[in-house]
Prior knowledge:
Elements: E1 9-12, H1 16-37, H2 41-64, H3 71-74, H4 78-85, H5 99-118, H6 137-170, H7 177-182, E2 184-187, H8 199-219
Amino acid sequence: xxxxxxxxxxxxxxxxxxxxxxxxxxxxxxxxxxxxxxxxxxxxxxxxxxxxxxxxxxxxxxxxxxxxxxxxxxxxxxxxxxxxxxxxxxxxxxxxxxxxxxxxxxxxxxxxxxxxxxxxxxxxxxxxxxxxxxxxxxxxxxxxxxxxxxxxxxxxxxxxxxxxxxxxxxxxxxxxxxxxxxxxxxxxxxxxxxxxxxxxxxxxxxxxxxxxxxxxxxxxx
Length: 221
């Protein structure tokens, strides 16, 4: 979610890595659901490892990425959130202080879901997460149950996110989807536009994330 507009300037809001991450997650979640429902674990596990790599990249990008992607730029304390709700917050672009809760909750739920999946296994023992052999069968069963249950929480968070997007579109007359496609949108005149990160930071973060996903998927297979 982003802050409501009060100005008319068109500014850069999201960089390409952040947008690619967003839409990759949007595509992967229904694919992971479908492969689980159809018991296509031969596809579910590689997709889960891809999700692992994406989440790790987003966490790294939240530390070294462009200004609007960094957690420090939008994760604020309760006082800032209260000022935002009262309409007294400083002009910002990107995620609002309130929207930060949605981002943190979604990333946390996705990270927990993927983490549990690494240790999960199916009922027949034919397929298992790449780290399942590190725990007992009973523990793997328990983690598999939690892996299934947590998806319900993830659906709730997705529903709230979509409801917020519709609220901003209908009530605030602010399209939050288009900037996540084009990277640009309306920003308040006093707000600082996005400051992009150097390309080498992207390549380092992407290499670490991809390497970790490949290592877990291969070294523990």
